[in-house]
Amino acid sequence: TSGSSSKIILSPSDILYLNKGQGNLWLNGTQGTYSVWRQIYENFVVFPTGVDKNRILGAEVCLWGEVSNEDTLENNLWMRSSAFAGRVWSSTILKTHELVGNLVAIQYALYDMNVDASPVTSEFCEHKPEMCWPPAQAEQKKEEAIVTEV
């Protein structure tokens, strides 16, 4: 509630539940929509409207175990949670081609540690991210859509 002083951890189930869109143990549905790294980065609001930022302890992504196991954990977790961390822990909002460069560097660092992270993008786009995500009108619209208190 607006008058509450209790502390909160942000964990919206729409984009930060990394198991969504992968099926469901109990039902035959998909249990939501799969969110890729770009959706997580662009749509997570660090300071939601109507929430006193002094109440926010932090934020988290969740990957529930109903449809995840040791074979899918690393592939489902690392790159999307890295995009989330980039959004939460930096007040600078990167253009998509800049974010891709950061995520690719993280991806290869994880590979060097024998972590089975999913690829961020194609090899061509790894080397030429500005061609895959031109920093033009789409970026301007994204910047207008993302409003963050700092």
Label this structure with key terms.
150 residues; hydrolase; signal; globular; Beta_hexosaminidase_sua/sub; two-stranded parallel sheet; Glyco_hydro_20_cat; beta-N-acetylhexosaminidase activity; mainly alpha; TIM Barrel; 39% helix
What does this structure look like?
One of its GO terms (cellular component) is membrane. Its EC number is 3.2.1.52. This is beta-N-acetylhexosaminidase. InterPro entries: Beta_hexosaminidase_sua/sub, GH, Glyco_hydro_20_cat. Residues 6-91 form the Glycoside hydrolase family 20 catalytic domain. This protein has 150 residues and is mainly alpha-helical. The chain has one domain (8-145): TIM Barrel (Alpha-Beta Barrel), CATH 3.20.20.80. It is built from 6 helices and 2 strands, in the order βαβααααα. It has a two-stranded parallel sheet. Helix 1 (37-43) links the parallel strand 1 (8-10) and strand 2 (56-59). The longest helix is centred in the C-terminal third of the chain and has 17 residues, at 96-112. It starts with 7 loop residues before the first strand and ends in a 5-residue tail after the last helix. Mean pLDDT is 82; it is low at 145-150.
